[in-house]
Amino acid sequence: MVLLQPKLNLKVAQRQILTPGLMQMVSVLALNKLELKEMIDAEMVENPVLEEIDESVPMLDQMASREEHLERGAEEAVAPPKDVFSEIDFGSYFQEYLDPGFRTQPEYEENEKPSFENFLSQPTTLSDHLAWQLGALTLDPLLRAATEFIIGNLDEEGYLTASEEELTTAIGQDRQSERSTDTDLLRRAIDLVQHLDPAGVGARDLRECLLLQIAAQQNEFDQLYARRAAASGPGSDEDGENPHGSFRAEAEAQLEERRRSMEVAALIVDRHLHLLQKRDVKDLARAAQVTPEEAHAGVEFIRTLDPRPGRVYNREQTRLIEPDVVFVKRGAEWVVAMNEEDLPSLRLSRRYRQMLVADGTEKEVKDYVKERFRSALQLMRNIAQRKSTILRTCDVIVRRQQDFLENGIEALRPMMIKEVAEEIGVHPSTVSRAVANKYAHTPQGVIELRFFFSEGSNGPEGADTPLLVLKRKVKKLIDEEDPRHPLTDDQLAAMLQAQGIQLTRRTVAKYREDLNIPSTHQRRRRD
Fold first, then answer.
1. For residues 433 and 334, what is the distance between their CA atoms, to the nearest angstrom?
2. The pTM is what?
3. What does the pLDDT read at residue 526?
């Protein structure tokens, strides 16, 4: 029987451990200029040892040195007459500048100040816009609550994705009533939402969304047409009695054509939406039993509709971009400069350094100051290391992409992150972090640093062509094709091979799909 007993074993192993300083260096390297500024501001608030250098305003240690210099000069000079104000404790005076009996309590002062949130603004969302319209209507409380429930279940594009069964069950949980009553209330609420602005919200699918927009424009057109007819009044165009008769007839013909295009568009969306993707006007005209001209006018009207009506109010916030580096040509040489404008310049506080050597400083205070000094020095080293890595990386980019900086995107050359990392002697992940979310101000505009890194494909004379340029060439060939006879992938590959770019049909098809360009059959226009 083997007894359990403790044993000591030695084991040699290699492990990669990230120290706090190394982790901070990695995170600082991945920050862009705006993010770095926010981080420095936060560190200055938490770490009192860090100070921002402002040449326009003297620092506290500079003021202290000036005071010491003035005191030495005063000791050497003749003693001035005694000043009665020297006996006043100004520190205590300014701290208690009023009698406590006449001072307003802080809690009352804070209550009188308006909330800072009152000064903040935010864009109007789709829910806010619909709720604002709902507030102007006089509705039954149950219908209003159901309508607000529907508005809350709309997605960012304005569609009602939940099924009627789910919505009915959710509404019925809040009140005790028959299911038929809840279903009727739900349908009334959906109908009310679908009549709000923008037209098309509250739809369950694309077909219903487009039909709602067409119906809204038809209703607006009928009202406008009725007002125009009432304003024109009875008139005679016979025997030349109305000199504007020809213009009125032309206007009436245009209005009738517009009305007819709406009718055909509604017919196509309602019954033949699956044929719309094929872009075959003849098939649409044959299926809808209209003329090809009417079918073409209906398709053009459908193009004016918005398949995502909620996006108007749910747009993404504009992201502020500020270049981290600047590529400037000085004479015949390109130079890389860091954009450090508005970036705080840090230094260590002299007063806290004096506390470390002072005899009267307590041990706990010294330990705290030492730890803060250690953290501040590590941050300043990491910021300097970030600057050095970015400059070295950008120097390689500028040296390899001079043709692009001078001639534009057609002169862009392929470049891999691994190649740059080997040239500057760092790991590829370091270069990847150095160019992440960072931008450069160049003669070709403000460009993301990752834009310069792209794989290549065999090109003319054995050179390489970046994938970005290849995709642009494919898109340009498709844009210049005849819509009635679009180019196939084989033809596109042959045309690129004629230019010296060796690509297969499958590669061209992949590039076309990446650009969201339809196939040859879908691009063909049949009038």
1. 23
2. 0.55
3. 62
